[in-house]
Design a protein that fits this description.
The structure is a single chain. By secondary structure, the protein is an all-alpha fold. It has 4 helices and no strands. Helix content is 57%, strand content 0%.
Length: 92
């Protein structure tokens, strides 16, 4: 059985040292800050479109609600932060 574990953390020095004791073949570092902002914005847009589509269905809003421009504005306001997008969705 092949087991994979996904861990996230802040880049604190003691945590880094602990992980660097594991060989490169057994671990993979993935730094989110190195991802292109356009990719992050696209992911946030997909998230918001999905969540707002569910809201549209639950509350019987017009099929074109909230509109592409509103979603684009929400993505820009999120500034790459999923937590902002999730919080905004909960307040809508």
């Amino acid at each position: 059985v092949r087991l994979r574990v996904f861990l996230t953390s802040r880049p604190e020095i003691p945590i880094r040292h602990g992980f660097y004791q594991i060989s490169d073949t057994e671990r993979r570092d993935f730094v989110l800050h190195n991802i292109s902002p356009s990719i992050v914005d696209h992911d946030i847009s997909i998230y918001l479109e999905y969540k707002l589509r569910l809201l549209t269905q639950e509350r019987s809003f017009a099929a074109d609600w909230p509109g592409r421009e509103i979603i684009k504005s929400l993505v820009q306001n999120a500034s790459g932060l999923f937590i902002w997008a999730a919080t905004a969705h909960r307040f809508i």
